[in-house]
Structures are given as C-alpha cells and as structure tokens.
Amino acid sequence: SMLRINIPPDVELHYYVISDNHLLSSTSMIHEGYPVDLIVNLENLGAPLSRNVGMDIGTGDYIFFIDDDVTPSPDILYSYVSSIREEPDASGYVGPTKFPTPVNSFTKGIRASDILTFFDISLTRKWVAWGTTSNLLICRKKVDGIRFSSVFPKHGGGEDIDFCLRIIEKNDKWFKTVPDA
User: Fold this and answer.
1) What is the DSSP letter of 53?
2) How far is C-alpha 27 from the geometric centre of its chain's CA atoms?
3) For a Cys-Cys bond, which of 103, 134, 137, 162 suits 97, CB 3.0-4.6 Å?
4) What residues form DSSP beta bridges with 16?
5) Over the Cα atoms of the chain, what is R_g?
6) What would the mean pLDDT of 99-106 be, rounded to a whole number?
C-alpha cells in the first residue's frame, strides 16, 4: 500500500489521505513513526478538488501525489530524492504508473489502444510537460497558488494535465522524469 514505502533518513514525511466518502470520520495516527492524517470531505468534492484539500493542509517543500489504487515501489522516495538532488530546479518529477498484464479482451483492447502511454511516458523521455497524479512529485514553491480546476469531472480526467501545464507555464521549466520511481 501507499503507506509501505521506505523513507530516506534525511526526509521528513507527513501523510495526508483525503477521502471523498463523507460517511467516514477524520482521524490522525502514527504509522511506522510518521504522522498520517485521514481527512474526510464533508461532501463529495471529487478527485481534483480533493487534491487541493491535501495541498492546502500540507506544508512540506514537496507534494507527492499517489493514487490509492497504486502499489508504489518500496524505494520510490529514494528515487525521487536522488532526482531532486540531480535536478533541483525542475518544476516537479514524474514516475511511471504501470498497469497489470491484460487478462481479457477488454483490458487487451485498452492496452492496444495506446491510451495508457502517458502513464509510463517517464520510461521513454527525460523531460515531460506533465504527469499523472497517480505518481507525481511537485515542488511546492513552483506551484505557488496554482490549484486543480473544478471544470474537470469529479472522478478525474484531465485535471492533472491542466495543473502541470500551468505550473510549467509559470516556471518555464518542465518536469523531470524518474523512471525508477
């Protein structure tokens, strides 16, 4: 799960899990020495605006987005930290999101349609204009007030592209890819 990642010794981490299910209750806990806050929206805001909630609550120098259906590599943060040290001026950092092997005609069709290309584009490019919020790390100071727009569907789709493009437009610097993240 997203809470089972190795934390570099010089990294201070705080998890914010944003739930759009108002039937839950907010809570705080400690997971392996790191604080975890479950923030529950009072109403269904959808994916884009829920991401804004997390950004507004957090205070760290970097914001790491990872979707709840993603199983990250245990050393994902080590990869990102290494890339930050190599390219500290990037607007953000994009890792790949790999999909399971297709198991039926529908999932084979999805793979064949090439619609998933942008999820693992970090495996073939050094710099990209945007990444998916399934695996994205951004520099808070480069965001500087930019938020996910409410014009996109609640279930998500396109808001991450728009968000990243506005960040690179503001900073004139693309996102560094991190293939091993």
Assistant:
1) H
2) 22
3) 134
4) 37
5) 16
6) 88
